[in-house]
Structures are given as C-alpha cells and as structure tokens.
Amino acid sequence: MLTYENIKEILPETKGVSDAAISFGCIAFTCSEKQLKGLFIQTGKDDDLQAAITNGAVAAVWKSDEELPFYTPNHFPVFLSEEEPLSAVIQILGNYRNKMSLTETDKKTWLKFPIDGRVPEDLVKKMEQMIQPPGNTSGTGRDEE
After folding, report:
1. Is the pLDDT score of 60 beyond 60?
2. The pLDDT of residue 119 is above 90
3. Closest Cα partner for 66 from 51, 52, 53, 85?
4. pTM for the structure as a whole
C-alpha cells in the first residue's frame, strides 16, 4: 500500500498533521463515493473536501495555489501540488506502480476512477497502462455500479 511517506517524497509541501503511519487503501478522484482510507484527489469542480472525509478520505492532494476549505481539520494531511493534482498522480504511479492495483485488495492501494468523466479518458487509460501488468487485460479501477 502507498504510505504518507511515499506521497511526501513526490509532494513534499504539506498542511495538517504529518503522520508516517498513514497508509492509503485507495486513491479516489471523486468526493461522493466511499473511499476507505482514501487519498482524495481534487479534480476541477470536485472539491468538496467534507464529502470526501465523510466518505473515508484520510488525506488529500490539493492544488497549492487554491485555498483549502476553512473547515479542513488540522489533523487531516493535505499534500500540495504546484501542478494539477492529476499530474501528481501520474508521478505517484510512475514511482509506486508496484503498490497500486486496478481492483480492490488488502495489500495494494486501489486506483478508483469515477465513471462520470471527471478524469479525462486519456489520463485514465495512461494510468491503467502504468499499473496493469503486461499481458493482463482483466479488470479496471472504474466504478461500474
């Protein structure tokens, strides 16, 4: 699983608590879905941090030049990205693809895509290709409920 320290290596600027013991069960690109031990990625208009926390987010990636909501808990880690948060996720995948999965698992961090187009399709495909073992075409990280 991805850990706080893994993310901090790529995004060293943070706000909130610094807790090396945090591990992430999933990376979520939407605030409105369950994300057990989630690392919430702020994307465009999907910036309802309270909803993400309510749905299980334990940390977030936020664009550094955008103000955090006033209600952000002090004990909630936020990794600040100078680039778009999706670009930071590409870096995370590049460095830690062995800790990632396209399906839910206890041993790896699940990359959970929304199906509503919040993440551009070309980026979804790129992320899936980065994680998927060569020759394996089964399963995606998309929620298909």
Report:
1. yes
2. no
3. 85
4. 0.79
List residues bridging with 113 in a β-sheet.
142
State yes or no: pLDDT of 135 exceeds 60. no
Q: Which of 45, 62, 76 is nearest to 11 (CA)?
A: 62
Position 140 scores a pLDDT of 46
Residues present in the chain in total: 145
Radius of gyration from C-alpha coordinates of the chain: 14
Q: If you average pLDDT over residues 111-123, what whole number do you get?
A: 63
Domain-wise residue ranges, the chain: 2-131
pLDDT band for 38, please (50, 70, 90 cuts): very high
Three-class DSSP labels, the chain = CEEHHHHHHHCCCEECCCCCCCEECEEECCCCCCCCCEEEECECCECCHHHHHHCCEEEEEEECCCCCCCCCCCCCCEEEECCCHHHHHHHHHHHHHHHEECCCCCCCEEEEECCCCCCCHHHHHHHHHHHCCCCCCCCCCECCC
Report in angstroms the alpha-carbon separations of 127 from 6, 36, 41.
Answer: 18, 20, 14
Which CATH number applies to 2-131?
A: 3.40.1390.10
